Here is the input.
Amino acid sequence: MTTFELTRLLPADHFAQALRADVRQGLTADAKWLPPKWFYDKRGSELFEDITRLPEYYPTRAERAILTERAKEIASVTRARTLVELGSGSSEKTRLLLDALQSLGTLESYVPVDVSESALHEAGRQLAAEYPALAIHGVVSDFTARLGLPRAVQAPKLVAFLGGTLGNLLPEERARFLTALRADLAPGDALLLGTDLVKDPAVLVAAYDDAAGVTAEFNKNVLNVLDRELQAGFDPEAFEHVAHWDAEQEWIEMRLRSRRAQRVAIPALGLEVDFAEGEELRTEISAKFRRDKVATELAAASFALRHWWTDPEGRFGLSLAEPV
Ligand code: SAH
Ligand code: AVI
Here is the structure.
């Protein structure tokens, strides 16, 4: 019989406190910024799902193509009894891994970890119906604060971090994250890591500035979150969506550009924030990788890259790594 349980790993007020600290720090900085995890309330999670279906947004389709081709091999190499997934969202592509591991007969439980409680509920409800033999244990957590692996997970475990979400962390955050993850793995465990790859900037910019304006709405959603959670006075329409390719850093930067000079009150923080006309607020980086960079960052955290796969067009990379 399927079981679906949800655990909130962090203290009850963690997210409220973390949002306040991030907004105070990011919006009082000389170059304003916000961390991308605050996009993902219920609406933000839905908008991300809409993004994955846009003609310009190739990463989801490219990663799905690799998983379709390689899921069986991943299952037989890892023989995982537990599949942990960080930033699982809708768990849509994950079904390819669940199916392969179930066919092999090793899989007992699935542990999706996400900041978005609504996404975990929705995915958990559907998966519980589709996978009656599986124990599903959702964890609401912030993988940059605490990984959130329930203590008693059956080894060996496969930790999947798909979609290219690693690229939404800054280089130093990635290093910290991979080192902390490595400490939670034992010999025999494995990491399956999806990374978007460097390519023609025009293709990249289009993927983050689609013609239908869905990514613009996703970007502006962070302002709705601040308005709701902190009683802030942002008017999302007073900001313009910007997707910029930084050729030196090899990352896409999403920004919100103030259409006019404005002062925005954030009563919950006793703060008023001034924006000059044209001033930009960075809301996300999405780093693009090359194989060597992935291998180097993994090695720095004591992982060895064992398999590297790409889609036929070489747009997206999937790595299978082991702790060393
Ligand atoms: N893995 C899915 C979803 C990617 S969207 C896919 O490949 O399509 C990124 C997901 O990570 C969202 O569900 C978001 O809620 C979650 N997320 C973002 N930052 C997070 C953080 N710091 N901790 C936990 N989850 C996070
Ligand atoms: C979740 N993450 C990998 C997405 C990305 O492509 O960086 C988030 C996103 N931002 C804009 N579009 C999609």
